[in-house]
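Project outcomes to date are best conveyed with an example. Our students and postdoctoral researchers have been running inverse folding experiments weekly, and each run begins with a structure described purely in tokens. The record below, which covers 175 residues, was selected by the lab manager from last quarter's runs and is presented without edits.
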């Protein structure tokens, strides 16, 4: 998530690799890059799996297709999950807008949904089991976390919020 993946104290050589990964992927254009995907296909009893290298190669259109693939269980597109996903992403954005000086460089969003709940069950019980978690905080930082006073980050993490905004827009488009 976000437009920047390197931490404040990353060595220059490694920093340049992160910058290059962002520049040549959807991280630079929409603030999001697919880090992996696994979705159960009920029609075949198998999983579709994609790794981070697949995600790095995606264009915007490819990223949209990957979101569709994530929501498709082999029988139907799980549109019942879209509103709960958007709601959780909006809550995350609201929370992050209040986090002055925090930067979540290199962190990710983990999306998990219960594939056993059918579309009909979800609508009837309002029980669309989707869980979205922020993970991978190794390069995250905020004012006061280190003794180094040369790092100054004011306001919320605009790169992360940029990515969240696009993700909300993409799921809204699916809806």
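After processing, the design step wrote out the following sequence:
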């Amino acid at each position: 998530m976000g437009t920047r993946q390197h931490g404040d104290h990353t060595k220059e050589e490694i920093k340049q690799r992160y910058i290059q990964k962002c520049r040549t992927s959807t991280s630079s254009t929409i603030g999001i890059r697919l880090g992996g995907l696994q979705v159960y296909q009920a029609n075949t009893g198998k999983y579709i799996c994609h790794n981070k290298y697949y995600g790095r190669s995606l264009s915007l259109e490819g990223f949209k297709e990957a979101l569709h693939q994530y929501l498709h269980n082999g029988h139907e597109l799980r549109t019942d999950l879209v509103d709960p996903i958007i709601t959780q992403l909006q809550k995350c954005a609201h929370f992050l807008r209040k986090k002055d000086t925090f930067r979540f460089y290199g962190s990710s969003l983990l999306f998990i949904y219960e594939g056993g709940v059918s579309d009909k069950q979800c609508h009837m019980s309002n029980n669309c089991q989707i869980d979205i978690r922020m993970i991978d905080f190794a390069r995250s930082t905020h004012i006061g976390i280190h003794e180094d006073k040369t790092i100054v980050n004011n306001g919320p993490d605009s790169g992360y919020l940029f990515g969240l905004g696009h993700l909300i827009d993409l799921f809204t488009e699916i809806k």
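The mean pLDDT is 88. The domain at 12-174 is CATH 3.30.470.160 (D-amino Acid Aminotransferase; Chain A, domain 1). The training component of this project remains on track.
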